[in-house]
Amino acid sequence: MKKFNPSRSALKRHENSSEKGKVVEVSTDNLEPQFLDGLKRRKFLGMGLLGFAGLTLPLISKSETQNTIENFVSDSIVSFADKTTSQTDSIQEKIQLLQEALVKKDYRTARALTNSIRISEIQLHAEEENLGTPDVAASQFGTVDSLPQVWKTWAKGWKYYKVVSLEEKIGTPRKAEPVEVLLSFQASQTASLAREIRVVEIKDGVLTEVISQVFSELRRGSEKICKLLFLADNQGKEKRQYIVFYGNPDAELPNYQTDLKVSGEGYGLDIENEYFTAILSKQTGQLARMILKREHGLEIYSGGQGHGEPAGIDWAHDYVSDDGIQKMRISLWDECPDFEVVKGPICIIIRRWGFPYSPVHPLFSPARMIMDIEYRFYAGLPYFHKFGHMTAIKQFSPAALRDDEWVITGQSFNEMLWMGPDEKLKMGEVSKESAEKLWGIGFFNKDTKDSFFGLFLEHYAEGLPELNHNGSPNLYYKWHGQIWSRYPVPKDIKVIPKGAVLHQKNAYVTIPFTAQDGPAQIEHLRKELLNPLSASGSVLQKNVIANESNSRLARSGEAQDSPISKALVWKALGNVKDPQLYKADISIVDLGLIYDISVRGGTVKILMAMPHRGRPLGSYFIYGSNVVHATVSKTILETLYEVPGVRKVVMEQTWYPEWSSNLITDAGKIKLGL
């Protein structure tokens, strides 16, 4: 599995929209270049009131005052990639307008501008986020026509391929292990990586498709980039090759079936697999409850009223403010300041980030440490991951800081578990010499065999000394249940310097646990997770032996065998313009709103997105008025019923994945003046 490399990209969003009724406070040193990979390390000018810096303006005429404000602001602002055009305004100009509004104490205008700046940041994030160096470059590819004949026939419909090699290095067999790779493609070779990519294992010369998941598909210049997850087996100490096929305009979104299910909207999801159901808070996205899927279905939860917020079992991440006045918690978010969600058959990813809130938010709203937390839940696995990154964007002196805490109400468990630096699982009280050297903590019930255990796979800091690895488990926290709580900063460290980052990667596992078999299972899992399959770009072995497969790669209609030409369907949809872009004369195809087309008999099914939730009615393009383009545009129904053989049209709308400018075609960008 590719090592997690969090993108501290784009601007860390200031969550102060006019909808939430908040006032922004930021300073000129809030963000340093090392935190702006997604903006190509451009420095972001903070937006502080002049008065906050101890500056005042002389009592001069109104016009002179305005000129003084504008000159001060324009002299302070650093250029961004975006520009003011006839259709939009740049961040640079918006910051200038915001500074002027704040100086004049025109807070309604300032709040509106803050929201507009945030929107521009989101757009820059979409256009400039840097996912890192691809494991397989755009130049590394082959053509299907060059493959052995039996493979070429089997993969009919696809034009190109890449080769990924996986190696298991410690002699431990793997079964359906999730592997993540970052791939780059020549944009001219693919229309949609999500639709086209198929991953195939080579074994004894036979090609076999494996379940895969494409996400984070981006366009960068002449290349397209995506993250790819797939499930891989290995007998241990093996090198296996996988072929990634792409370049098929007739391909449809694959419909892989696994035990991973998800329901809900946004970040407040219910996620289920064979082993457990995880219930995330609808308010904060924190893990609120888990149901362990055994015969009695134990539900682990944290009861009571928390600290005035809904309780959950995951209470991290937080810190106590200077002088111990209050605790700043992400559990106090009224909603996630920012989040990203990835859904698929292999993995559900929920990433949330922002500044923690005060108990009396927004009275106190310090911008000192950003909490960036990501859960990953997998198909067919009894564990989930949590990645955490706590980044100090200014120097501050917290009285305490916590990066992992779990609280479970009731007496579901009656034995404690822990793992020290020797990586051997032990039961009972933590020894004194291991109290600051813990790499695993948990509980089990010796009667029911239920268990919950946290494996600490990575725990380190940038800009700080070696962290403490503490958090000894407690079976009777204030007599209501179990707890462990980790305070990683050594007690002699009183100041967290600007730029310091605390990192963690944990795996939380629930298995039927006995004193005889459980320790070996947990130790074995830790070894696997610390030594994932190693992925790299490769080429097919010379003189490879190719044998026939029992089936073919293409589903019905994917190998130029559709009963109605998909090329004609795409061409017809090019006649459907967005009338709200009056003179751009741009179609829903060039906007990238069509995610998928399938043809079954005389029925054509369209999967379609809308640009944003302010326009939720995709049916507008089915029935809507096209008066603006009365002579050049048609509705989806009008244009598709003109295609020979089409008898029925079905349109399904989706919000996932969210539409972005990465999906606009080259022709569309020209029409929009991008």
Principal-axis shape equals globular
Nearest-angstrom radius of gyration? Answer: 27 Å
Structural class: alpha+beta
Unreliable stretches, pLDDT < 50, 5 or more residues? Answer: 1-62
Work out the helicity level.
10-25%
Strand content: 25-35%
Concise summary:
It contains ten helices and 32 strands.
Could you characterize what this model shows?
With about 675 residues, the chain is α+β, with helices and mostly antiparallel strands. Helices cover about 15% and strands about 30% of the residues. The strands form seven sheets. A nine-stranded antiparallel sheet has the order 16-17-18-19-28-25-24-22-23, covered by helices on one side. Strands 1, 2, 4, 5, 8 and 29 form a six-stranded antiparallel sheet that branches. Strands 9-10-11-12-13 form a five-stranded antiparallel sheet, with no helix packed on it. Strand 9 (about 260-265) and strand 10 (about 270) form a beta hairpin.
SSE diagram, text form:
Blueprint: H1 62-76, H2 91-103, H3 107-128, E1 142-143, H4 149-154, E2 160-167, E3 174-186, H5 193-196, E4 198-203, E5 206-210, E6 212-220, E7 223-234, E8 239-246, E9 261-263, E10 270-272, E11 276-280, E12 287-292, E13 299-301, E14 318-320, E15 327-329, E16 338-342, E17 347-354, E18 369-378, E19 383-392, E20 400-402, E21 404-409, E22 415-419, E23 425-427, E24 440-444, E25 451-462, E26 474-477, E27 481-486, E28 501-509, H6 518-530, E29 534-538, H7 566-573, E30 594-600, E31 603-608, H8 620-623, H9 636-640, E32 648-653, H10 666-671
Parallel strand pairs: 31-32
Antiparallel strand pairs: 1-2, 2-8, 2-29, 3-7, 4-5, 4-8, 6-7, 9-10, 10-11, 11-12, 12-13, 14-15, 14-20, 16-17, 17-18, 18-19, 19-28, 21-27, 22-23, 22-24, 24-25, 25-28, 26-27, 30-31
